[in-house]
Specification:
By secondary structure, the protein is of the alpha/beta class. Helices cover 37% and strands 15% of the residues.
């Protein structure tokens, strides 16, 4: 059995997933689609770059992360249906996405969260020293968000599925009660939040091009990580926060209910959510490497 993963090159988490798969599973993987028995379409939005002769002659597994049905028009449905005829089995990273996908296809769907690499994401005990190294003080109340919040190239419009307006509302309320608040941001296209933080005088620190080492350090100094998304496939930050023992609360999206304690999930009122660190850590650890690959390998072995 040899598996080929479709390429993406978008500097996104899927690129990292593809790289890690090849690194840790060399005996069952190939970089040559010609030699593959199974084609894993890990980036379905660019599936048409794969020659049809390979989709017709090999077993095909396709991953989907979430569906925004408010934007899922006829063109998107036609594209999905065209791809569907070549897919043997679908993979999703949360049970919520599985429920969405079941409305579009009768093909088999397997839900497996992506693995979390404990060689990249891990707890650091010297948190006070780490804060000083990163330019924070012991009294700072650090709240983090490490995903983009601005839609498209205008760098103005909020990407509403990610809930930056919700995050802004929450951090504004926290700041009114706690002037030690400082928001910690990483990633590209954080313009919506940055513009509003500056407009409203909310302190923040922005690490735009932070590498994995720096992001892991940032997880470890946070007092709270907030997922405010309306729609998500993961987000992978839930697993990363879990494995680093970072206090986290989340809306009920993606894998939140599978990894976090129910008390850590909020809807309208974030103050009802309580970070349950040990619970999140235990569940995230189940998907650390190499255990996080096992269900995927089983999926590929059983595909018909």
């Amino acid at each position: 059995m040899k598996i080929y993963l479709s390429k993406i090159n978008e500097s996104w988490i899927v690129d990292r997933v593809r790289k890690e798969w090849y690194k840790f599973n060399p005996s069952i993987s190939t970089n040559s689609i010609m030699r593959a028995d199974i084609v894993w379409i890990i980036s379905p939005w660019i599936w048409k770059k794969i020659p049809l002769r390979h989709l017709c002659s090999k077993k095909v597994v396709c991953s989907y992360y979430h569906f925004d049905f408010e934007k899922f028009g006829k063109d998107q449905l036609d594209n999905f249906n065209e791809l569907d005829q070549y897919v043997n089995e679908y993979h999703v990273i949360s049970e919520k996405t599985k429920t969405q996908l079941e409305t579009l296809t009768d093909k088999k769907i397997t839900s497996i969260p992506f693995w979390v690499n404990q060689n990249i994401w891990f707890e650091i005990e010297e948190k006070i020293f780490l804060r000083e190294t990163l330019g924070f003080t012991k009294k700072d109340f650090l709240v983090g968000s490490f995903q983009r919040d601005t839609e498209g190239k205008d760098l103005i419009s909020p990407k509403l599925v990610k809930g930056p307006d919700i995050f802004l509302d929450i951090t504004s309320k926290i700041y009114k009660k706690n002037k030690n608040l400082k928001v910690v941001l990483t990633g590209k296209r954080r313009n919506y939040l940055i513009n509003n933080f500056e407009k409203n005088g909310i302190p923040y620190a922005y690490f735009e091009m932070a590498n994995f080492d720096k992001i892991n350090q940032l997880y470890n100094v946070l007092d709270l990580y907030i997922v405010s998304s309306r729609i998500e496939g993961g987000p992978q930050a839930i697993l990363e926060a879990g494995i680093t023992k970072t206090p986290i609360i989340s809306t009920d999206v993606g894998v939140a209910s599978e990894i976090l304690h129910k008390d850590s999930i909020y809807s309208d009122d974030y103050t009802t959510a309580i970070p349950m660190i040990d619970h999140a850590y235990r569940n995230a650890k189940k998907y650390s490497i190499p255990a996080g690959f096992e269900d995927f390998i089983t999926l590929f072995k059983k595909i018909k």
